[in-house]
Design brief:
Blueprint lengths: L2 H8 L2 E6 L5 H12 L3 E5 L6 H14 L4 E4 L4 H8 L5 E5 L1 H10 L4 H13 L5 E6 L10 H20 L2 E6 L2 E6 L10
Parallel strand pairs: 1-5, 1-6, 2-3, 2-4, 4-5
Antiparallel strand pairs: 6-7
Amino acid sequence: MTQANEAQSVFRSLLVLGGARSGKSAYAQKLGEAYGPRRIYLATGTPGDEEMAARIARHRAERGSGWTTVEEPLNVASALGVWAQRGRVVIVDCLTLWLSNLMLAGRAPEAEIAALAGAIRSLAGPAIFVSNEVGMGIVPDSKLGREFRDWQGRANRDIAAACDAVIFVAAGLPVQLKPGPTPSVRLG
């Protein structure tokens, strides 16, 4: 079995979680490249300042010409209906920026997260979702920061439940969380 065929048979929907600069996007990209030549990169970042514009340009250059980039900062669930098709893979990078965009646009996170989870359950083709795990650090000092952290935790939980598989990347090392063994509990 070729690497591309193996990647095709392993997942339909995959969530890749990790901290900032953990290697989660690079891991997701390698999986996407192993899938085959028809690859869509659904980018949620917006160039709000010079640093972010440079970051976006650098990431696009690093991906190379083998990817079709679609910029969609808000309507990820509906974009999946268009782009996630049989025979190609979609990477959504990243859900953290998507949630931030939603909150700054005044959109209801709960409804948007539910819509995305529903879209994942009915994908016509494989998709990989990248998201930051933001709840393992310090408590933000602002109300908005705490609300964002809480919504990101909820989003990660709900998207993980909707996806077939979940990988956590720490220090560049992937650890499979789902599917995983079900622990047995013995009382007494």
